[in-house]
Specification:
This protein has helices at residues 2-8, 20-34, 48-60; strands at residues 13-17, 38-42. The protein is α+β, with helices and mostly antiparallel strands and 71 residues long. It has a two-stranded parallel sheet. Strand 1 (13-17), helix 2 (20-34) and strand 2 (38-42) form a beta-alpha-beta unit.
Length: 71
């Protein structure tokens, strides 16, 4: 629900969860409905190594410093 709210306001998203199938379904849904870019990171946030995976992805995609005010 939160991802839909941000997508509906024109934000591109980074979504993270263990269930990659559901993430990719969410990506398709949000892109189709809101025409936003959705970066998918399948990762288990209960595992420390996932933090490194996310950080590396954000750096690789140059997303680590992109912010915008939410209104």
């Amino acid at each position: 629900a939160l991802a839909c709210q941000f997508a509906s306001k024109g934000f591109d998203l980074v979504v993270v969860a263990r269930d990659s199938n559901r993430l990719y379904q969410l990506e398709q849904t949000l892109f189709t409905k809101y025409n936003c870019k959705v970066h998918v990171i399948p990762a288990d946030l209960t595992k420390k190594e996932s933090i490194n995976t996310i950080e590396e992805f954000l750096k690789k995609e140059n997303l680590n410093n992109k912010t915008r005010d939410v209104k």
